What does this fold into?
Amino acid sequence: NGMLADFELYQDILLRRLRPAVRGMLQGGVDSEHAGALFCNNLEGFPKRRDYSMAEMRGAMRTMIAELRALSAEASLHQCHKIHHSIISEINETSIPSGKMKSWSPSSMNFAVSDGQGIIVTRFRSKDDEDPPSLYYKLGVESYVSNKDKEDTSSVNNNNNHKRSFSVDGLVVASEPLEESGPDLSKWRLLGKDKMISYHPNEGVKIECLS
It folds into this structure.
């Protein structure tokens, strides 16, 4: 969820940064696919190696966001220089064409990546006084089993609609809470701006700052 502003200005530079094996896996031209390729490019040995620790994946995500910020800033600076020279060449005109006064646009970088066991999610905006799109998380996953699906002759409760719940460790993430009301709504937490949250069964939940 989000967008890399002015991505077309530095798409070619990003492509040149990728190792040939990673670059060859690209099939489209959208910003999210290129960001994913940059993430993979930061995983040592990819694509021949496919097994990575959560620390390595978090490091690759952190580096990817830093690279995207640097590429965006460099492209914006280059664009400003072009506009400046264009304005100088038109200095004798009474006004500056509005189309030339293009300001730098910040990017929203809400990413999610998983290896099938662990998950890493970010909520990031490359401007200090602006918020990225919302991203909520809930700790634990609840499953429900109906009594009518399980024989229990010792039970004195004849209500077939009664349900027994049990908790399973996990992490649920969504742009908005999946429940609109009730006690389950209070379990959702808004991930802070410029934060990265990760979960793996062997290490639990970690929240780190990206700024």
